[in-house]
Amino acid sequence: MRFLKYLQKKLKNEEKEISEEYNAFINADLSKYKKGEYILFSEEGVYDHGFDLEEMTEKFKKENPKKSPAVFKIPPKNFSLM
Amino acid sequence: MFWFFNNHDTKVYKYRGTDGAKHPVCEVNFIINNQNGPYKTFMIIDSGADISIIPKTIGEDLGLKKTDLHYLGGVGGRVGYYINYINVELAGKNFTIPVAWLTNDSVPMLLGRKGVFSEFDICFKEKQEIVEFTPR
């Protein structure tokens, strides 16, 4: 019984540690965005994308004053880690 | 049962691809005190980079400071950068990392070794396309 409770607690904690934005990021199709573009993720999914990060962040903050978006930048043209 | 014996504090992040090439990407929260904070990002883990790199626009959003200007040289030419120290939250741990804030937007956000790799045992599992962070 104690072991089962432990497993339930562990599962609950693991669920908590993965953020909604990370889930949205993992499930998004990144191939459809342009190189160098910024993508803003909210808890619901992709909020917006484009090259003007400041404008997109401002718009997000106006609509969701208490929340922060999560930002990912698509690697720009000619970028390689090699 | 293997799952049961895993280190409970280990965080697993998946590889993500944008144009065929897949990179390990993790969630990094920048703890900043301006109107944009806390600032959540997804950074490509670059084990070959000494230091983490922030492109110009994101550095402006983060409110980074223009300290002494340094230059990086490479095949693609020279690019300037400013060193800043930022508090971050990564894989359930809070600590400070140095970042190179570039003067242009020619790179994505890269998570380098300095300040990060000393905090975790990091295991890249290429075949499974995951990277594991275990706090030290």
TrEMBL record, chain A:
InterPro entries, A to Z: DUF5678
Alphabetized Pfam families for the sequence: DUF5678 (PF18929)
Domain of life: Bacteria
Domain called DUF5678: residue spans: 31-77
Protein name: DUF5678 domain-containing protein
Annotated organism of origin: candidate division WWE3 bacterium CG10_big_fil_rev_8_21_14_0_10_32_10
Automatic annotation (TrEMBL), chain B:
A Gene Ontology biological process term: proteolysis
Positions of the Peptidase A2 domain: 41-77
InterPro entries, A to Z: Peptidase_A2_cat (IPR001995), Peptidase_aspartic_dom_sf (IPR021109)
MF terms in GO: aspartic-type endopeptidase activity
Keyword Hydrolase: yes
Organism the protein comes from: candidate division WWE3 bacterium CG10_big_fil_rev_8_21_14_0_10_32_10
Pfam family, one: Asp_protease_2
Name under which the protein is recorded: Peptidase A2 domain-containing protein
Transmembrane intervals: none
Keyword Transport: no
Keywords carried by this UniProt record: Hydrolase
